[in-house]
Structure formats: C-alpha cells, structure tokens
Amino acid sequence: MGTSKTKNLNLKPRKHQRDKKGEAPYYAFFSLEKRIFTFCLAFRALNSLLVQTYFNPDEHWQALEVAHQMVFGYGHLTWEWKKGIRSYLHPLVFALLYKVMAFLRLDTPWFMMKAPRFLQSMISSVGDLYLYKLSRIVFSDRVAKFALFSQLSNWFMFFCMPRTLSNSLETVLTIIGLYYWISFLGISKHYVPSTSRKMALLLSALACAIRPTSAIIWLYVGIFDLLGIQKKLRFLLLEVLFIGIFVFALTCLLDWWMYGSWTFVAINFIRFNFFSSGGDYYGTHVWHWYFSQGFPAMIFTFLPYSLLGIFKSKEWRLSGLIAWVLGIYSILGHKEFRFVLPVLPIALMFSGYSLAALSQSKPSRREKGRFLGMRCPSRIQLSILFLIATNIPMALYMSLVHQRGSEDVMYYLSKEAKDGKVESILFLMPCHSTAYYSSLHHNLPMRFLDCSPSHTNGVLDESDQFMENPAGFVSEMFQHISLPSHIVVFDSQEKKLEEILALFSFREEKRFFHAHFKVDRDLQASIAVYVMNAS
C-alpha cells in the first residue's frame, strides 16, 4: 500500500525518529501516555463540575432534550426534528447514559444536571490525549507537552468542551482522525499505515454523520493528500466509498427507526443551511467576523504564540486547514463560535510549538541577571504566567458566573417539581433561554415562546412579539390559556409585566443572578420565578 511521506507535510523529522540510540523505549511512551490520560481524565472531570452556566441552546435542545424523549418518553422536539435536519446519532450517546441512570435510579435533579457534561468531559479527555499524540508525531515530545498545556489552559476549551454540543464531539473525532491520518502518511514508524488510514476514514465519516459540515475539514485533508497515495482508485472505491456508505447506511437506519420514515439528514441539513440560508433566520455577521472577532476571542491570548508557531514551524498544511475552515464558514451569513471549534486545538498546537521553541532558546543577558536579589524569570516562564493569568480567570468567570441563572432556575424547579410543588410552568423569555424537560425531569405541562422560522417574510414569531410588547402579548395570551402555577421571566421584561402579574395574583417566589453585562439583548441581570397565590 502506497503512502505519502514526511515531505508531503513539509515536516521536519524528529531527532528520536532519526536516532534509534537516543530514543526512549516504546513501552516507556505507553507508560507516559497512561499518566497523561489519567491526568486529562481528572482535569476534565473537575472541568465538568465547574461548568455551571448557559452558553448555547443546542447543548440542551438538540442533544439532551432529544435523548430524554428517547428514553423517558417525554421531551420537546424542536422544528429541526420535524424537518429532518438533525440525526439521532449524537443524542443516542446521551440516551444510553440516561438508560443506565434510570436503571440505577440515579435520575435525580443533581445527576440529571451533571452526568451528561461529565460524560462529555470523559470523551473530551480522549481528545486531549490525542492532541498530545498528534503534536508528538507532527513535531516532537517537547511540543506535545506544551500543546497539551495550551489545550487545557485555553479559556474557551475549558468553557466549551464539557458541554453536550455536537461540536464538542465533532472536535474530539476530528483530532483523533487527524492523528490516525497523519500516522498513515508515515510520519511515525510506530503505526501500521493501513489500520491508521481506515481508522481515520471511519472517524471522519462519524464526524460527518454527527455534523455534515465536518466534511469541510475532511475534503481539505483528503484532496491535498490524495495526490501522494498510490492506487488511488482502489483507495477511493474500497476504503473511502466503502466506509462512507457503511456509516451513512447505519445512520440512515437509526434515523429511519426514530423518524418512522426514510430521512436523509445530511441532504436536508446541507439544503437548509447552505442552499436556502435557513441559518440566517437566527442572525448574521459580517463576512470577516471569524477572522476579526470570533476566532481571536476563542484562542484569546494564545493568538500571538499560535501565529509565531505557524511561521516558525512552516507546517503550512495544518495551518492551511485552519484558514480553509475559517474561510469557508465566513461565506455563510449565520456564524457562531462553536462552528469552528474543531480547528481551535490545531491552532493551540502551534502555540505549543512556539512555547517549546521559547523553552529551548538561550536566556538573554537580562534573564541571567538578578532583581532585588532574585533571578529574573525567563521568557518561557513569563509566557506561561501570562497565559495562565489571562485564561484561567476568564475560564472561571464564564463557566461559573456569566449566564448561570438559566441553569440555577431549572435545578430549582426540578427540585420543586420532585417535591410536588409545581403543576405547570410558563417561560416568558426569549425562546430556548433555559433547558427544558431534560433538566426538569418531570412530565408536567410546560410552555415556552416559539421561535420556529416562518415561511412568510415579515411575520414575527412568538418570541419576537413578546420582546416587542411584553405586556400586550401576555395580556392576550392569558385570555387563551390555562394559567400556570409558575412563571419564569428575565428581569428586563419583568419590569414591564409587574402590573399584569399582580392582576392575575402572581407573586415573586425566587430570584437568581444571571449576568453582569448584556450579550445580544437588553441586560438580563437576573431571572425571577413567580408563583400563583393560592385562592
């Protein structure tokens, strides 16, 4: 079987690849690998417990809510599931978790809130390990250690990777897939090319099945390296096509079973997001947003180190992948941070290269000197301190403080419902501002304001109607529904509803801090829970 050699990736062979005498025994690496994986497991477990804020509705509504409906028989399926643009493959991961929890009778409010993120964190720790392994075969052991440091200390990776977003799983599959693909290319002599190639293709197919847009990454990787592969036709027909059809068939069978009819999710997804610009309904950004704002905010203070690592390493193939992904996603009007999450670890790997180069540089005359009797810190020490000092506070604030009200209110309501104190709930807030049945875990009537895309231009959905005129909308609504026992509302709209809530005998029961500053709407500083007075 032909392979593309190191020169195709423009990589410098590592010293221990050229010098057998200076290389550590292979079993020693496995021992180190186990220690690294154990550390990553422990780190991500703690990470999952420290993520207590709300970030993106899809974490709950496109994963956990669907899994809850699959296992417990109740849950809300959003319009995406009615149009068949979501696959059940990703929710299935958490459905299996819920099955185990139900069997062990661990489906209590606390476990329902924490267990899914804990599971995702365990998956993410595998991605951390494989980023280390990928950096090792692309560059060196030293770079791998600093790449792992960059991965674990970057604020956005800490904030996002434990979340049950399909993008988090896609990122893990991408990193592992790239590792096996580059192993197949012959960078490291420790791996069997044929096995690595098939594993890479399988992982890429799974990533595309979970998020069809992952094909953007693998098209770039495949097209560039196809030229260096011998027996191209055999490779395309017997491996790429065979594995692709196998995964596609399994996914179609799962979706057929769950939807009740043949549903080709990938086709529906691409048609809606690329050809009809359906995602634009939820907002658009300028074309350069990923380059000027989005990705720089994600990589944060690692950005200069990453850019320096790209130019110093001259590893243009992987750096080109980052530019390719950012460029393609820039074409789409609707943009979100999480869409480009899979290439963030690659950018952080280049940061690891830059830090490794700093650690090997000779100390300057100033660094050899002393200040107040103490030795001046080296450039690598200053860099590490700077990165920790800028990323850790950001990670903790975003994970523990900013927008935590959405999580706290659902945990409170789930405990109240368990004690039989809740009969029904109305969420008077922008749609999908909180989790739903997957957090409440009680089958009682609930209602939120719908924001499904309208086929008619200019027609406002319920959520927008409420935001335009809260009092008028609620007055009209209360004439056509049975009044709930509990109402959940942001303080920014609560001020406009005080009179009508008092008129219908609702009183404030509980208030939760939410945020210090606004994101894309008026400041939503707190969330209030109102309860109807007993007659």
UniProtKB/TrEMBL annotation:
Where mainly located?
A: endoplasmic reticulum
Q: Name one GO molecular function term.
A: alpha-1,2-mannosyltransferase activity
Q: Quote a single Gene Ontology cellular component term.
A: endoplasmic reticulum membrane
InterPro entries assigned: GPI_mannosylTrfase (IPR005599)
Q: Where are the transmembrane segments?
A: 171-188, 200-221, 233-250, 287-308, 315-333, 339-359, 380-400
The residue stretches assigned to a coiled coil in this entry are none
Top class in the EC scheme: transferase
* Annotated protein name in UniProt: Mannosyltransferase
